[in-house]
Known about the structure:
The protein has 22 helices and no strands. With 521 residues, it is mainly alpha-helical. Helix 1 (2-21) packs across helix 2 (27-37) and helix 14 (295-327) runs antiparallel to helix 16 (340-348).
Amino acid sequence: MFELLLGLLALCLLLAHLARKFDVPFAVPLVLAGMALAFVPGLPEVEFEPELALALFLPPLLQLSAYRTDFPAFKSHLRPILLLAVGAVLFTAFVVAVVAKWLVPELPWGAAIALGAILAPPDAVAAAAVLKDLKPPKQVVTVLEGESLLNDASSLVLYRVAVAATVAGTFDWGQTALAFAGGAIGGAAIGWVVGRLAMRVFVALDDTLHDITASILAGFAAYFAAEAVHASGVIAVVACGFMLGRQQHHIFTARTRLEAKAVWSFVEFVLTSLIFMLIGLQLSGVVERLERYDWTQLGLLALATSVALIVSRFVWMFFIAWVPRRLSRKLRERDPMPPAAHLTIMSWAGMRGVVSMAAALALPAGFPGRDIIVFLAICAIFVTLVVQGTTLGPLIRRLGEVEPDIDGPAPEQMAARRQVASAALEAVEDKLNDPEHGAAAVDLVQEYKERVDEAVALEDGREPEREHAAQRLRLRLEALEAARAKLVVGREEHDVAALTLLTEELDLEEEQIRRELGETA
Length: 521
């Protein structure tokens, strides 16, 4: 099994490279490859333990998404985010349940609602994987990422209540509402507490490697602590991620932030790649258990369910955008109707993934319609990832909603850079009359004045100054290359520790220059 895991990772790396080369979301070839491998004779069957999948994959990926989220933008878009994360989940679950009950009358209502809850939430991992290389409007990205952080909680609460109701034979909507409210509040509180405790741990550890390890463990701690008291582990992880993301500049050293980014990027790539591959690998076992069914009927059922899933999101998206503003003049004035293009993009960006698969496989043995539900979950993941995932980019470009490419840093980035440079200049100027630091301050003032002038020129877009600043930065890159080449040629003359230190300094300086040029993310 270990050899198979290494082989899957190698294949994921190849597919990710090909996906970038052919400009397709890399989640798509991963799922397709997993489905193809599922029918390769002689390969060992890969068991997908659903509880392990939720516990292993969700906490770090959700924590990282929350950590990177623009929290002020998240708060300013909280209304549409909640309308999608809660309202769209409930509406979609209801539509899918009605369609499933209509097409499969023998399916109990509880099982049909469980199916709806399984398929309702667009997946955070899938959304991030598909949107990563696209450039939709920032407002669209904020709402979609915010939705994907919270919708798993609402869908899992509805799913658990529906499963329990099916087993017990009764369904209580009041219990569902109470469970959702309690789970959300409890999860948020536990995530906040774990985040605060984690910050105390970081201060006590004061070591880069230990801090990074503790930051990874914090998400798992929040998830398991919340699940232990039947609160929402998803909300707990998101709350913990928000807390750490907001406080990272106070609790982490510069070295910790730089090295943590590399570690988290690696973790994200490995977990994201494996989860999509594992989703595809589940197809073989499901097909074997469905041999007794009429495949024409199953195909029509899968098609109808997937269409209901996609159409219901369009209906809900345009309904919540149009009806409340039609009824409230204050809302229209405070929050004008978003462009139809934005609504179309958000409606089409409803890819399903790990949560839907894990929830379907977590259904108890003997659950009514379990095999059909698992089959429909795989079909929905396949359709939304392959159809919507591959066409989302062309749709965004066709609607003309691609953020324009900017030669160099974005204006808002340069505004922040100017403020930082101005603050640094003021701090140095304050030391000009200091007997202890005056001479050194005189030397630094001119350097920081040049940085401020350069930032102002780039922010205002004045072409001559902008081009001159860019030429200076590129010349500095050439100088760094010459310095690095000298180190390589004379590496036998230098102590290994000194060589390593100088190389790190040159690498950091190069990264800073490339960021100023806008050449790195």
